[in-house]
Amino acid sequence: MQQSTAWTIAGAVVDGGVETTTIEAQPTGSVELRCLFETETDEMPASGRQYYRHLRQYLEYVHTVQTGETHTGEVWVQEEANPNDPVSSHIVDVVPGQGVRDIDPFWGVIVGGSDDSRGLPDYRDLTLELVWIAPRSAYADRAAVEAAVATAPIDIE
Fold first, then answer.
1. What angle do CA 57, 63, 68 make, to 5 degrees?
2. Widest CA span of the chain, in angstroms?
3. So which domain of life are we looking at (predicted)?
């Protein structure tokens, strides 16, 4: 497992550490990130509580995203977000913390995960499951990623 502090996922700083199995940079690769946050106490910075809640919202609305791959092996993403939902897209950028040498920043789409915080007194434990889309350097911003991969699957009847 790789572990580092101060990862950034979808703009949220995860400063309690992130654990991941080795990420292989392939377009259809699955990535699991275990994000740890300090306990929500007076000592925990307000930003930590905010970042935990921000990433937790992706899990609450994960049912609105589907992924697959084309016959050429490229990832497609279909999202059915309501304009009133707090999550406008599950496509996120992931920037590993300093000291992680074998994982470059990348774009991914959150497709699942879990909040394993119940009963843990010292921290919040959030696992995110992503589908790897591309290196972060391949697209300037999320809009460019969405333009490249957002589509509806072909309905063959």
1. 120
2. 57
3. Archaea
- Residue 134, CA distances (Å) to 20, 48, 89, 113 in order: 17, 28, 16, 20
| pLDDT digits 0-9 by tens, 50-73 | 888 889 999 999 998 999 888 888
Q: Model's pTM, two decimal places?
A: 0.82
CB atoms within 10 A of CB 103: 20
**Per-residue tokens: 115:** 């909040």
22: number of Cβ within 10 Å: 9
Tokens at residue 81, please? Answer: 């977000």
- Burial call 46-70: b when 16+ CB within 10 Å, e when fewer: eebbebbebbbebbebbeebebeee
